[in-house]
Each structure stands twice: as structure tokens, then as C-alpha cells.
Amino acid sequence: MNPFFHIGRYFMLMFRVFSRPQKVSIYWRQIIHEINSIGISSLPIIAIISIFMGGIITIQAAFGFTSPLVPLYAVGFTTRESIMLEFSPTVVCLILAGKVGSNIASEIGAMRITEQIDALDIMGINSAGYLIFPKIAASIIIFPFLIALSMFLGIWGGYAMGVSSGATTEYQYVFGIQAFFEPWKLYYSFTKVLVFAFIITSVSSYYGYYTTGGALEVGKSSTSAVVYSSILILLFSLILTNLFFQR
Amino acid sequence: MIELRNINKTFGDRHVVKDVSFKFQEGKTNLIIGESGCGKTTIMKLMVGLHEVDSGDVIFDGANFPKLDRKEKQEIRKKIGMLFQGGALFDSQTLEENVSFPLDMFTELSKAEKQDRVNFCLQRVKLEGKNKLYPAELSGGMKKRAALARAMANNPRYLFCDEPNSGLDPKTSIIIDELISDITQEYNITTIVITHDMNSVIEIGQNIMFVHKGENWWTGDKTEILGTKNKELFDFVFASEFMKSFFKKD
Ligand SMILES: Nc1ncnc2c1ncn2[C@@H]1O[C@H](COP(=O)(O)OP(=O)(O)OP(=O)(O)O)[C@@H](O)[C@H]1O
Ligand SMILES: [Mg+2]
Q1: Rounded distance between C-alpha atoms, residue B118 and residue B108, angstroms
Q2: Which range of residues forms the domain containing residue B133?
Q3: Chain A residues within an 8 Å CB radius of B48
């Protein structure tokens, strides 16, 4: 369908999502619930992937830097920069788009086709706000913690696997991960995370909310949610990188 | 009272609701009957704005619903209780949470008051003690009854029921019909019930619209329906041998 149709309808939905809540206490309850279901349940996958990726980056970097002109601490430095700038904020968010995005789209899609959303509307409830706002708010609150944890575990994984495999030494690695640290890069990373959190939850909710038909279409919505949120993540990663890395 | 004036609806090139006009009266159980696929659910959804009318008016006590803005519609909807054909219970909530949902959203009742109200509603649909079950743990008929309990929880002014007793045994069916009829009279509300069960028609039909191929084909009450000369309605009413042998007196 026409992309402008989707863009227009998406913004109209967001307008309803961010209109004044009807009962704040209920929204709070929902936000806490979503933090649990979006955030806490994603911890294991993030931990596993981050530790392994950190280790792999470290070993590959050590293997690649054979020239005597490259200082030995470059391995740690490379691991830190890759993890902090791109792996944790972007790649982990892409993985979360797969996990959280498909989950949200199929949950809301199933509610749509079984008329649960109609039932909310009929009661005079702003169904878009009630269902979607808590998800967006929860992910904006919890994603930065998840990604911070991913950064920590990634760098720790690099240390554990790098040192134990003999690819680097403890002293070189620890020196490397502290070298040339520029705090603004963390702003850059966490700005990306907040933008991606919003993209994943809002785009997935959009596809779920406008599901029509049956179980088959719920599956399709969930696929579209993952595909389009991933594309948008990459697009915005590029845009934000251009904005931050200007000299 | 809710009045329909010449409402129309097409899906693609299929004209599903054709120029339907009808007055649903207060304090009476108003029935919409007709064959499967004739447009009953569509008419109900047009009334509450889940589908938009192509043309025509839906007047809730003086307010023309399709012409209202979103906020005004929400105000009217807070007075609506609706039982969907498929139940539409919230999967993630227990029975008790489902029933108390409209109370949580729109009332300032204390926890104990809400609990009382929930128990009262569950007891009236014969689901007492099932408070903590999830919709997935209920049978089809139990879901229907639970959905009715939710629809009546916040004392609606307008009660819409899409086939409240399909999937229920005859005994429970009558209990539900009587419950609907009782709350209608007790609170003097406007109740609209879709059914194809002739039993319910005879039991509670005070103001009946028979829909045939999307048109308002016949209107009347339960005594008039048994003496009808209208061919399509006659075929609908006397489809079963039982109805023929029991009521036909020619
Ligand atoms: N959303 C929709 N899109 C397209 N066609 C629809 C839609 N909803 C209903 N229809 C069509 O409108 C007609 C009337 O459907 P409706 O659900 O109102 O029937 P019904 O009288 O409630 O039947 P039943 O007693 O089986 O529930 C059907 O032919 C159906 O295919
Ligand atoms: Mg129907």
C-alpha cells in the first residue's frame, strides 16, 4: 500500500496514543507490567549475545592487528568502540526489534481480531492510549538499562574470552578499553537507544493495531513490524551518526 | 431510546445494510432477528460506531452519534455495555479483572465496593466462584456469560447483546434471557439483543425487527410474530418442525 497512507495513519495513531490519559493510576500499573514483560524477559538473550560478541570482536581484532605499528592496547580499544558505538545500541536493538517487536505486534494484533480492542473502544476507552502508551513509555525507561548492561557484558566478554584464549593480556586490554575515552560518544549511543526504543514499540504497535482478518494476518503484522522497525532503526542510525560525527 | 434513520452500509461492492430505520425503545427488550449473514451484527456495529455508516442517522436520546466528535462519542460509549458475538474478554486478565475493568476505568468505587459489584454480576450470570479463572480456562458458554457480566457491570444505559445465548444449553439460555429482560425493566434501559433463537423470541421479544438481506423486513412483537403472513418471516419462524406443530393453527 501507499507509504504515505501508512505514515499518515501512523502519526494519527501516535496523536491518540499521546492524548491525555483517562486514568493515570491504570497507566502506571500498565507501565510497570510492560517494563517487566518487555525488559526483564529480554535480559537472558541480551546477556548471552553481548558476552559472545564481545569475545568474538576481541579475538578477531587481536588476530587482525599483526603489524608492529599497531599498539598492543588497540585490541581493547577496538572492542570498546565497536561495542559502545554500534553493537550495543544498534545491533542489540535490532535483536530486540525481533523479540519485542514481534511480541507487541502479535499481542495487539490478536486483541484486534478477537474484538478486544473494539470492546475497549465501546467502553469509551481510548484503546490506542491504553494499549500502546504504556509499551512505549516502558521501553523508553528500560532500554537504556538493557543497553548499558549489554555494553558492560560485551566488554567483560571481550576481557574474559580474549585473555583466556591468549589473544590479548589483561594489562593491554584494560589499558585499551580506557584509552581515548570521549564521553560525548555515550550521548550519541544513548540518544540512538531512545530513538530506537520509540521506533520499535510504536511501529510494532502500529502494525498490530491495524491488523485485519485472522490468525494469518496476525503473523503478517508481526513480520511487517520486525522488518519495518529494523529498516527504520538502520535509517535513523545513519541519520544520527551523520548528526553526531560532524567536525 | 435509540432510533435508526435510513442507515446504509456497503463493504466493497456488497450492500450489506439497506436503508434500515427502526426505534429501539427504553425499558423493553428490543430484538434483531434474521438469518445468519443477513446483517444483524453489522447493524449493531454501525449503531455503536465500530463501522461507519455510509449514510443515515443513529440517534441516542437526541444525539446523532455518527456526527459527534471523538470525545462526545466516548461520553456516550461510557453508558454502553456490549456483549460481543465472540465474547471479546481480555485474555490477559482474570474473569474478575475483566468484570471490574469498566469500574476501574470509570468509577471511584473502593476496592471492597468493586469486589461486591463483581461478585454480584458473576452470581447473576451463574459464574460465582470462578473469579480467578482466565478466559482461556472457560468454556464457550461461560465466556458468553462472563462477557454479559462485564457488559452489565457499570450499570449501562444502553445494553447491546450479540447472540447472548448461542452456545448455551436451554436452561442456562433461559436464565440469561430472563436476566437481560430483568435488568432492562429494573433500570429502564434500552436493550438490543441479536438472536436467532426462537425460544428467546417467544420468551423476551417485546419489540422485534426482522432483518432480511440487509433490510428491515418486518417489525412487531412476540404475539404478532406467530400470526405473521409475511413469507420470509414465516419461513424463518417456522423453520423447525417443533415450531410448526406447536404454534401453527391452520
Ligand atoms: N468487516 C467486514 N468486511 C466485509 N464484509 C463484511 C464485514 N463484516 C460483515 N461483512 C459481511 O456482511 C454480511 C453481514 O454480516 P453480519 O456479521 O452482520 O451477519 P449476521 O447477521 O450477524 O450473521 P450471524 O447471525 O451469522 O452472526 C455478511 O455477508 C458478511 O460477509
Ligand atoms: Mg452476527
Answers
A1: 15
A2: 90-155
A3: 122
